[in-house]
Automatic annotation (TrEMBL):
One of its GO terms (biological process) is positive regulation of blood pressure. PROSITE patterns: G_PROTEIN_RECEP_F1_1, G_PROTEIN_RECEP_F1_2. PANTHER family: G-PROTEIN COUPLED RECEPTOR FAMILY 1 MEMBER (PTHR11866), THROMBOXANE A2 RECEPTOR (PTHR11866:SF5). This is Thromboxane A2 receptor. Keywords: Cell membrane, Disulfide bond, G-protein coupled receptor, Glycoprotein, Membrane, Phosphoprotein, Receptor, Transducer, Transmembrane, Transmembrane helix.
Length: 373
């Protein structure tokens, strides 16, 4: 179906009041090329299918309760990203293949609203899941006794469902008047209206701040967990308990956080800056940051696929994997940390010894000789 321009009238549906397809100026723009959408969608879907098979196999073989909790979160993240790519990618590719006119096939904006909700839901869910995973690891490493050994796996599943529920509630806000979903250039997708005006500005800030808050929470809690884990692995009692699972989970979680930060922060900061400054929306920058978001969905599954002990053993078979700690994953780094830790401990001990010695030393009884004239 060829795209034809329909004029604005008083009866124009809300989602077409800002932008009405088609957009001929964007037809030849490289950033709007259908090759990007097709390639990214195919890579993302294939990667997530592989990751899902790997996670399912690992989940069946694991005997660690904390590891199984973490795998449930990873499974929720894989399913979320896969469904997001499948739904939004199918709509975008259908548009590029048929060049349908949205105003003709979707005169009441139902389809556009559905895609806008999908973009928001499948965008915020991975960030909220990342923060939930950071909270779970923080409790597991720093407060191990706060989580009983009999805690059912259904509680972790409930947390994943709660994250989806929160993201779904935020995605539904434009349908009750807080924000609005609009057609976006080059006419292949719908998203909320990024504007500083009224409820559109409120929803834009909600989306941006929730995403940034999730990234900040992940960064802070993961940093504390890594520091605690290094202290445990490099301490005097490091051989009393194997730390294979903790190290592997933290390495994967840190990489997920780094990828999400690099891919999501430009878009979230761009939205917040556009709203707070009142500047007009730059559509080319919006499309550029959207490409960054797609890289997040492509790279995430390869963290689960590649950064596993079984894979790392094949890559570096010479390493002593029997130790099962961070010391074997990064020997040079661990040796540096161990020396620093030991030197700090010695310094503290010597300071305490000197202070104790000074406090226990009796007052001097030496009397100077009388001054003679």
């Amino acid at each position: 179906m060829n795209a034809t321009t329909l004029p604005f009238t008083n009866d124009t549906p809300l989602c077409y009041t800002k932008n009405s397809p088609p957009f001929p100026k964007f037809a030849s723009d490289p950033i709007a090329s259908p090759a990007f959408s097709a390639t990214f969608s195919a890579l993302g879907l294939i990667s997530h299918l592989i990751a899902f098979v790997v996670l399912l196999k690992t989940f069946r073989q694991t005997h660690s309760r904390s590891r199984s909790f973490f795998l449930i979160f990873l499974g929720g993240l894989v399913v979320t990203d896969f469904m997001g790519l499948l739904i939004t990618g199918a709509i975008v590719l259908s548009y590029h293949l048929t060049h349908f006119n949205w105003r003709t096939i979707d005169p009441n904006c139902h389809f556009c609203n559905f895609m806008g909700m999908s973009m928001v839901f499948y965008g915020l869910s991975p960030l909220l899941l990342g923060a939930s995973m950071a909270i779970e690891r923080f409790i597991g490493i720093n407060c191990p006794f706060a989580r009983t050994s009999t805690m059912p796996k259904s509680r972790t599943i409930t947390m994943v469902l709660m994250v989806w529920f929160i993201a779904g509630c935020i995605a539904l806000l434009p349908l009750i008047g807080i924000g609005s979903y609009h057609m976006q250039k080059p006419g292949s997708w719908c998203f909320f209206n990024i504007s500083s005006e009224g409820n559109d500005g409120v929803f834009s800030l909600i989306f941006s701040l929730v995403g940034l808050f999730s990234i900040i929470v992940s960064f802070l809690l993961n940093t504390v967990s890594v520091v605690t884990l290094i202290k445990v692995c490099c301490g005097k009692n490091r051989k009393q308990r194997r730390r294979d699972n903790e190290v592997e989970m933290m390495v994967q979680l840190i990489l997920i956080m780094i990828i999400a930060t690099i891919c999501w922060c430009p878009m979230l900061v761009f939205i917040a800056h556009t709203v707070l400054s009142g500047a007009p929306l730059n559509y080319k920058q919006l499309l550029l940051w959207l490409r960054f978001l797609t890289w997040n969905q492509i790279l995430d599954p390869w963290v689960y696929i590649l950064f596993r002990r079984s894979v790392l053993r094949r890559i570096s078979p010479r390493l002593d994997w029997s130790q099962g700690s961070i010391m074997t994953l990064y020997p040079s780094f661990s040796e540096t940390v161990r020396r620093f830790t030991q030197s700090s401990i010695r310094t503290q001990d010597s300071d305490k010894t000197e202070e104790t010695g000074k406090s226990n030393t009796p007052p001097s009884t030496f009397q100077p000789p009388p001054y003679s004239t």
